[in-house]
Amino acid sequence: MKIYIDTFGCTFNQADSQIMAGLLKENNLSLTSSIEDADVIIINTCYVKHPTEQKVITKIQKLNESFPDKKLIISGCMVEIDPIKLVKTSPNASWIGPHKIQNIVDIVKSVVEGNIIRDTGYSNKSKVGLPKIRSNPLIHIIQICEGCDGACSYCCTRFARGSLQSYSIETIKKEAEQAIYEGCKEIQLTAQDSAAFGKDSGESLPDLMNNITDIEGDFKVRVGMMHPKSMMDDVKEIIKAFKHDKFYKFLHIPIQSGNNKVLTDMNRCHSVEEFKTILTMFKKEIPDISISTDIIVGYPTEDDNAFSDTMKLIQEIKPDFLHISKYKHRPGTSSSNLKEIEYETMKKRSKALKDLKERIAIENNRKFIRTNQRVLVTNKGSKGGYVARTNSYKTVIIENADIGTFSDVIIKDAKPTYLIGSPII
User: Fold this and answer.
1) Which of 233, 273, 286, 409 has the fewest CB atoms within 10 Å, counting from its CB?
2) Is residue 127 assigned to a domain?
3) Residues 206-230, mean pLDDT to the nearest whole number
4) Contact in structure between 17 and 45 (CB atoms under 8 Å)
5) Arithmetic mean of pLDDT, 331-342
6) DSSP tag of 218
């Protein structure tokens, strides 16, 4: 019996798939990278955005048409968020919810026997310390907590992931130590909101970060997305922890809108001013930090003035990475009771923001030309060369390099999404 796993979505979802793969292999079940050779297909779904939903549904429909005799298991957020649509899309598929992935071995065995299994609902079992099959042997993802303590009006992910559940620092550190011992060079700490870590357990993100830095070895750590509201009470300690050499100087802090009224309507629980204060504090203490943020274009209460505020904010903060999403109603959310704005208006705003993003990206990246950078080489490039990351998590393409090593390079050129470097000999 061979099993194929296809994954959509975020780093957290990728870790879920890696755990399922690890559990299956540990129980002597074979994994395959060929969908044609598979007896069982697992589709780990993402449902945070409408375009991703459409991709997931199209994938499932094509699998049903092309491989009607193969056993299909649907996992991920769609299972908990939209079971009605899932039944319509694939009535004979089995399901496994995000909190039940530890049961994947029993489910696969039962499905092979001809049963349709639908294992959903919440669980307080920790995902730390479970076996993983890494997609890149040098990069290890650790889920530090699951769920969140927010209630953003547009977000359906919280219906799948539940309320905040932090895992213990002791177990997270142990998993990180094992990964480093096995040769990993990058640790990615991931969560729906990394800054919320420990708010339910009495621990904290800075405590976790400080424990990770105690691990011996030459490696880098990337901290995942942090909600501004979860950072406000602990900014100074988070910054202090970020200063350690082992942490990438990379801050992913979504703002979603540059207008306070829209942020209130979104129930984000922070203001533009508070967001800017956090950035100012980081940049003062860590001048070379890269900023990544997210914008939702076309929220139902976003008028022309509100969008103008967003454009002004992005022009002011000049983020290194900007993720743009067009608003679309999501199942079960309170914002889905509002009237969506005209699509043409949304499309026009999105194009304007995208153009601004690209101008800022190339402007920021050109500042790196003729600078020396110490980079971690993580993998081969899909179009040639090797991919590396600077200390501020900028992507650098190098013609010749040894994967898994730290290398000193000089930046020769800059593109909007990456830098081009040459080794310093």
Assistant:
1) 273
2) no
3) 97
4) no
5) 96
6) S
Domains: count for the chain: 3
CATH number of the domain enclosing 403: 2.40.50.140
Q: Provide mean pLDDT across the span 368-384.
A: 94
Average pLDDT over every residue of 77-91 = 94
How much is the mean pLDDT over the chain? 96
CA distance 128 to 122: 16
Q: Does the structure show a pLDDT above 90 at 408? A: yes
Last residue of a domain, one of 317, 349, 366: 366
Q: What is the DSSP string of 333-398?
A: -GGGGSPPPPHHHHHHHHHHHHHHHHHHHHHHHHTTTT-EEEEEEEEE-TTSSEEEE-TT--EEEE
Confidence of residue 1 (pLDDT cuts 50, 70, 90): confident
Percentage of the chain surpassing pLDDT 70?
100
pLDDT at position 267 over 90:
yes
pLDDT at residue 383 is higher than 90: no
d(CA 136, CA 138): 5
Distance CA(314)–CA(358), nearest Å, equals 12
317 and 393 fall within a common domain: no
Task: Identify whether residues 53 and 112 lie together within a single domain.
Answer: yes
Strand pairing category for 372-380 and 386-389: antiparallel
Residue 395 within a domain:
yes
Are 316 and 396 in the same domain?
Answer: no
Is 132 within the bounds of a domain? Answer: no
**Amino acid residing at 215:** I
CATH number at residue 28: 3.40.50.12160
Strands (DSSP E) contained in 77-193 are 94-96, 118-119, 139-143, 145-146, 165-166, 186-190
**Structure tokens given for 213:** 């830095």
Q: DSSP strand E in 191-344: where? A: 220-223, 250-252, 290-297, 321-326
The answer to the question of residue 124 being in a domain is no
Residues 348 and 377 in one domain: no
- At 89-124, the pLDDT tens digits run 999 999 999 999 999 999 999 999 999 999 999 998
